[in-house]
């Protein structure tokens, strides 16, 4: 961004720096970094506090429209059975933004990020697909079944499609005010993902494996599917 002569600030907790950044702005796209170690380890103020600080600064500078990269409130959806820190904090930011005094506030959520399959950490967590061949030479996607029948997973290409959804909201912000938009590229099963990969590369090099047990560290990566997009 600096190379493209886009102004940057270093401290998103600083009201003074945020005021400089937002002065004269018409709209704001906000994505707080759920992968920040301080947030993940719950050291200091939570992610939701940063979100509120940024929203307040935007309102103070007369920013009219906000698009937020949100997540659903996992604790509420699951009745408290599966609280996910990043999900709950982002949901709190979205709720706050809707009543903060902006002209419009919209959440654009992503599905499961297709981009992760080209990140080594996630490839290792999910069987190797699409980077690391297994002992048989296959790129194996190893995940538990989703449970829906037929299995459908909402996938989002963050690099190719997510920004188009954000742009679309800004083009007609009043229409989408207060809503949550799911920016989904395509819905398909895990097996369909590997089948599509094979069709594109022209050979049977990928396969869907079955995992009935998920280790804790893999489960954390599994839940972090939704927190990869950042600004």
TrEMBL record:
Transmembrane segments: none annotated. Pfam families: NmrA. The keyword ATP-binding does not apply. It comes from the Eukaryota. It comes from Botryosphaeria parva (strain UCR-NP2). The keyword Oxidoreductase applies. Residues 17-220 form the NmrA-like domain. Belongs to the NmrA-type oxidoreductase family. Keywords: NADP, Oxidoreductase. This is Putative family protein. GO terms for cellular component: nucleus. One of its GO terms (molecular function) is oxidoreductase activity.
